[in-house]
Structures are given as structure tokens and as C-alpha cells.
Amino acid sequence: MTTLSPATGTAPAPERAPARPVLSLRDVRIADRAAGREIVHGVSFDVTSGKTVGIVGESGSGKTLTCRAALGILPAHFEVTHGTIELDGTDIATLTPRGWTAVRGSVISAVFQDPASYLNPSIRVGEQIAEVLRVKRGLGRRAARAHALGLLSAVRLRDPELVRVQYPHELSGGMLQRVLIAAAVAADPRVLIADEATTALDVTVQAEILDLLDDLRERTGLGLVLVSHDLALVAQRCDEVLVMRQGEVVEQGPTAAVLHRPRHAYTRLLIDEHEQYGLERFRTPEENA
Ligand SMILES: Nc1ncnc2c1ncn2[C@@H]1O[C@H](COP(=O)(O)OP(=O)(O)OP(=O)(O)O)[C@@H](O)[C@H]1O
User: Fold this and answer.
1) What is the C-alpha separation between 160 and 165, in angstroms, rounded?
2) Pfam families per the record (predicted)?
């Protein structure tokens, strides 16, 4: 029987088909050709608009290589040897260098740890963002400058007029990461990878930056991939989580399910470690019940 929507008295819209993922990995394997060995042994996940997927795991588990594969920036002797990666429906294996130039920044973008190393130390930060806008969105000089200022204020830098004429060395780590986020979202990407982007920041600044990413996600429908070794961070922010260890995804699913019914000993170990300093703080009340 068709139920009526109480607000309008009309039949409700048919249930929507699931949104097409903005990023989709299927059984992706990555090998180090120089060493002649496989490093990542089959990763699959989907990121849809407005959702956050977390990848958690110990150092060297393959989190960054997985992200770099999606961005088409694997280190020289690494290659995807199996599986598919799709960006907004396009198989990245079909992308030419020119195709990648069009896609990077405007479909997929990323921020990493150590933001200073991604900025030119001798160019004012506002100019660097304006440059992204000129190249990626074809804006003229004046429009790019104005838009850069808007982006600096959108990432909640307190005095964007001042920040835009400053050089990277004049900004704190948290401010630099905000500048990097402004540059990363300048061309309106569909998906943003934040790979340990807040690891080097103190806890308060870390939370502010993650709130900022959440806010962007909610306002713009950005899909997010949060890479972290910090399970508490992932528990708090992500809809779905992948737990990686030595190149394997040992556990994957909705965050609450993974936290409450961990099936793998390694996930249980991560949870136990965090419980020592209060993972329950990050669980919603019903999850704690
Ligand atoms: N450029 C590189 N050259 C040689 N080996 C590399 C390179 N990048 C990664 N590796 C190796 O590949 C494996 C996976 O590395 P990856 O950086 O993906 O791990 P990760 O889970 O992101 O770790 P971390 O949390 O420390 O960043 C590791 O054994 C690492 O040593």
C-alpha cells in the first residue's frame, strides 16, 4: 500500500537509487616492481557524496599507497597490478596525462601531513590559491584574487585579508593546513583525501580542522577519505571504516558495527588500546548503551 506524505498529502517520491560513488575501489592491489612484491593485497570501498570513509591501521599498512593510487601519484616503481579505481564513474586506467590534469583538483583532491612542504615558501599564500583558481577554473587575475580571499575565509582563517599577503613561514601549522585545504577545495572536487592531515597538530587544532572538513562535507556534498592511525578520530568522524594491516583490509564496515562487533583480533587490539584513554567518548550514546 502506498502511504501518503503527511506534509503534502501526495504519494512520497519513489526511493532513490543509491548515489553513484564519487570514488570507488575494487580489489585494488599495488606492487613494488623494484622489490618484486605485492604491498597492498586487495582494497575495495566506495565513497559517496557527503560521506566519510576512514582508513585506519599501523604504520606501513598501505594506507597512503592506496590513496596515492586513487590520486594517480604512486611512487615511481609502484603500480596497480589488479582491480579498478573509478573517479566519478571514470576508470582511472583510461586517463591520459591530460585527463589527469583535468581530474586532479576538480574531481579528486588531497591534503597530507606537513602542509608547509606543499606550499612555495617565497610566494604569498593568497597568490598560491589564486594560481590554483586561474589554472583549474580559468578565472582571471582579479576574480581569482577575490575568490582566494573567499576561500581563506571559508576555511575559517581569522584574518583572511592579512593571511593572503603572508608567506608560509609566517603561519602556524594549523593555519597552513587550512590554507592547504582552501587550495585543495578551490576547484570544487567531489572527493577529498585527508591523509594524516591533522596528525602533526595539537588536539584542539586537530579538532578544528576536522570540524572544518565536516562542515565542507555537509555544505558541498564533498566525499571524504580520512586516513589516520588514530581509531578514536575515525570512530568520531567516519560513516564507514577500513582497518588495514600489512597491506590487507582485515575488517571493514559501518563504523559502529566495526567498533562494537570487531571480528578481527587486530581491530580488537586497536579498540583495547584506545579504551585506555576513552574511546567511549567518541561513541554516540546509543552505541555506548
Ligand atoms: N616511496 C616508497 N619507496 C619504497 N617503499 C615505500 C614507498 N612508499 C611506501 N613504501 C612501502 O610500502 C608500504 C606501505 O606504505 P604506506 O606509506 O602506504 O603505509 P601507511 O599505512 O600509509 O603508513 P604510515 O601510517 O606510516 O603513513 C611500507 O612498507 C612502505 O615502506
Assistant:
1) 9
2) ABC_tran
